[in-house]
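Much of our argument rests on the idea that a fold can be written as discrete symbols. In the encoding step, the backbone of a single protein was reduced to a row of integers, each denoting a local shape. This step matters because it turns folding into a mapping between discrete strings. For completeness, the protein is quoted in full, as a sequence line and a line of structure tokens:
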Amino acid sequence: MHCFNRAAARSASRPFGRRFALRFPLRFSTSTASIIKGLALMVSILATSASAQGTATPPADGVYDLLVGTYTGPKSEGIYVYRFDTKTGQASRVSSAQTVNPSYLVASRDGRFVYAVNELPGDNGPATTRGDISAFRFDAKSGQLTFLNKVSSEGNDPCYLSISPDGRYLTTANYSVAADPGGSFAVFPLEADGKVGKAVLTVHHEGNGPVKGRQDNAHVHSTVFSPDGHYLFAQDLGADKLFSYRYTPDGSRGLLGPTERRYVDMKAGTGPRHLVFAPDGKHAYLTSELAATVDVFDYRDGNLALVQSVPMTKPGFKGEVGAAAIHLSPDGRFLYASNRGDANEIVIYAVDPATGHLHEVGRQSSLGKAPREFSIDPSGHWLIVGNQNSDTAFVFRRDLQSGLLEANPTRLEIGSPVDFAWVSPS
């Protein structure tokens, strides 16, 4: 599997609508342009139920549904639903849904639907096996998930999901441990009944980096839409690039087309992983897994300009690293990033409101191994981190003024916890 610990254990201008050559190495697979335009028109006519990720109006009692995605095995069967009280930080399990390796989740803005990757085949599976995307109807009041349908992710090891800001399409990043088919991302229409349609576009990256065993081929690790909804950025750990695409769902220029710049080159061997945008849309932040750094970008009209790079490790740190998740506090004042390897901690940075630059203010042990993902609750008072290799999650109280995480967190026993999603029951 592409996660750090398992890998370490093994030691332009023309729209997409048909196959064509570009100056940078990509391969495309898509239905005809007319089908894409027809899908865009169809979805625009429908009253779209599955809108962009987020959650509805905050509940009056402060209680949210917390969904936890896992790697399945002896201690986990799929997705778990908890009732989480933002006033006390207490969580109680409500239900679960069986599905294979739902290592990344995303909920529609109205909370009625939940989408999960099925991360297959992994380290030892045959490269001919493709991963899947599963759709569920979610009854937030009862906390019950109902399976709707499943489609191929059109690649290996899907590890990330994102819903377009207009709610029309779902994208996934196919990391692909195997060199063939290699890293890619795919785009799926979302139907009015919550089901996910078959992919209408698949883009294969090509490229590599200097880190043997981790960068022998392309590895797309995240697909992130810009806040204005006009661009999609695909972070490629294997190629050390942030690829950028123009999103035009009306079909006037194809569904997605390369921007004029086409990609941002990152320092060789850094392994870009996850990208997040500031609430005001003026800045973006990136974790680079192999280098364990956080990069700061100025953002404008589809262009990312690198302005700062800060280390996640302490001075003099010796050991394995593996930068992973990155999230901003709801008010945008603090940024948090997780580092696995031998560090196993969350690093806390204050954000300069004028420049977006970062200044480290603290760090907190995850109290376990491999903190692959974490999440801050919608109220901003709590941070929950999943220790994938310790079968535990911890809920830390978060100081709103200092950004620091307080001691004595609540412990939850969950088999291989990975990702988290919040839904308001009201």
Observations:
- Helices lie at 4-9, 33-45.
- The longest strand covers residues 256-265.
- The domain at 4-11+22-423 is CATH 2.130.10.10 (Methylamine Dehydrogenase; Chain H).
